[in-house]
Amino acid sequence: MSFFSPDNAFFRLMTKVCQGAVLSLLWLLCSLPLFTAGAATAALSSVMLRLVRDEEGYLFQSFFKAFLTHFKQATAVWLLFVAALILIGGDIFFFVRMGSWAGILIAGLFFAVLIVLLLALQLVFYYLVWYPSTLRQTLAGSFRMALGYLPYSGALLILLVCMGYGFYVSVPLMIIFAFFGMGIFGYIGAYLWRRVFDKLEQKKGGFYE
Prior knowledge:
It is built from eight helices and no strands. It is mainly α. It has one domain. The longest helix is centred in the C-terminal third of the chain and has 31 residues. The radius of gyration is 19 Å and the shape is globular. The termini are far apart. The relative contact order is 0.12. The model has no long low-confidence stretch (mean pLDDT 85).
């Protein structure tokens, strides 16, 4: 096969990289008002889930179609998670500041709840676009799947933490992750969860029902 052939592995890889960069920038632009970050993440998740199977065609059209289609529910999910994370984070800070053993123990319990929330958060938008359902079913299904497939959700949470640490300690990584981080994370997450979704669709009823 010729090196310059469009079917060459290198060109396929570079195509994926360019598509990921475009989607990451679209996500960033559509998330600038933080209120719309949920809809932007749902749109990114929708396109990425198909991109990993080479099923996607027009990035811009597909992204904005998913953005509008899932805007209401994705925004509600996003605001609920933000409110819960702020509340639990405030509780952890409060009980740690108490300085007592009881306070530390309670803070540890809240920290465990925080981890579960973060595990579900990195999955919920993939779930939302793949299994359209009510808000309650989406939230319940996301938590069940995040805990039921802990190696996947845990690995993605570790990746997210590592990216956040790199963003904090390195200026070059800060620039890379600021513009392309969601494309990287979104593609890896879509690759893992699409494997789960495809497997579940082969089973009668599916995991989420």
